[in-house]
Write a structure and sequence with these properties.
By secondary structure, the protein is α+β, with helices and mostly antiparallel strands. The protein is built from five helices and four strands. The chain has a four-stranded antiparallel beta sheet with strand order 1-2-4-3, covered by helices on one side. The protein is globular and about 40 Å long.
Length: 114
């Protein structure tokens, strides 16, 4: 099915909104960037966990077949300025689903409990 760019943008922002709403419910996670704007027009979300390193979170999620990026994301000066060692980034595309977002949130919530 063909989608217009606007439809794709709206769809990806909806995935961001679902993720942000879920992340806000998980203790120890801090969303980086303008969350409200990302919920309207975003396609990626970055966050940190106060207890676990971003690379450990990425490895844990990878064990559950969930792909995220961890590190500086080619923004070392920004990370240094914000005093962040590394961050987790979730990027969405047209092939991602709400079920995938919910699965990601499920495993992130398990980290918070463990």
């Amino acid at each position: 099915q063909a989608l217009s760019f606007e439809q794709l943008k709206t769809y990806e922002a909806g995935l961001c909104a679902r993720l942000i709403e879920g992340l806000r419910q998980i203790p120890s996670i801090k969303i980086l960037g303008p969350a409200e704007e990302l919920m309207i027009s975003g396609h990626m979300v970055s966050f940190i966990h106060e207890k676990f390193h971003a690379h450990d979170i990425a490895a844990y999620l990878d064990n559950h077949r969930i792909c995220v990026r961890a590190g500086h994301h080619c923004a070392q000066p920004l990370h240094k300025c914000l005093n962040l060692e590394s961050t987790v980034r979730v990027s969405f595309a047209g092939y991602n689903t709400i079920d995938e977002v919910d699965q990601l949130l499920y495993f992130l919530s398990k980290i918070a409990l463990g």
